[in-house]
Amino acid sequence: MNYDLLKKNLQKSSELSNTELESICHFFKPKTIQKKEFLLTQGSICKFEGFVLEGCFRIFTIDKKGKENTLYFAAKDWWLMDIDSFLNQKPSDLNMQALEDSKVLLINKEDKLSLYESVPVVEKLFRIMSQKAIVAWQRRLIRNNSQTAKERYLHFITTYPNIVTKLTDKQVASYLGITHEFLSKIKKNT
Question: Which among 151, 164, 163 has a CA at the least distance from the CA of 177?
Fold first, then answer.
């Protein structure tokens, strides 16, 4: 298994020695997920933190009316997990579905805690990565509350051009919090 992409991703947040990187990689297990297969379903407990090597995932909820609400997409070189379910070992509110054949590296909670003990710098690394994720979520919330749907759409397609090509209009609309029909009108006028 080639862990180069994971190593490069980790190096973005902290300088790690080759020995530390190898130790970290030892704890991650590879998994192949087929298109449309679920890595996590609502109601189950998230037993992993994952890193996407290949492919793309849609992370979404289904509300009481059966409407799908997309929180985010995770493509190559992205992380995916349900942090609440993972940390608190409670049933997840999320679904994680592969949009194409995908490969991920997974670490379970016990191994992550062992990793913190064996490579102490990892705890700082994951704290920094968590802070960056919180900033990204905050920025998205601000955009959702201060921009028009068209502005949010334009931001999405310019920020994530490699992901847009993997998605249906229905999935993009779900992410933007608008109807598929309204997205069609936006695209027609753009």
Answer: 151
In sequence order, what DSSP letters do the residues of 7-25 get, joined into one string? Answer: HHHHHTTS---HHHHHHHH
Residue-wise over 111-131: b if at least 16 C-beta within 10 A, else e?
bbeebeeebeebeebbeebee
| pLDDT given at position 149 | 95
Among left, alpha and beta (phi > 0; psi -120 to 50; other), residue 189 is alpha
Average pLDDT estimate for 146-167: 94
Extract the tokens encoding 18. Answer: 């080759």
Do 26 and 4 touch, CB atoms closer than 8 A?
no
Element (H, E) at 116: helix 109-118
Tell me the whole-structure pTM to 2 decimals.
0.92
**Beta strands 38-40 and 49-54: pairing type?**
unpaired
CA–CA distance, 178 with 176 (Å, rounded to integer): 6
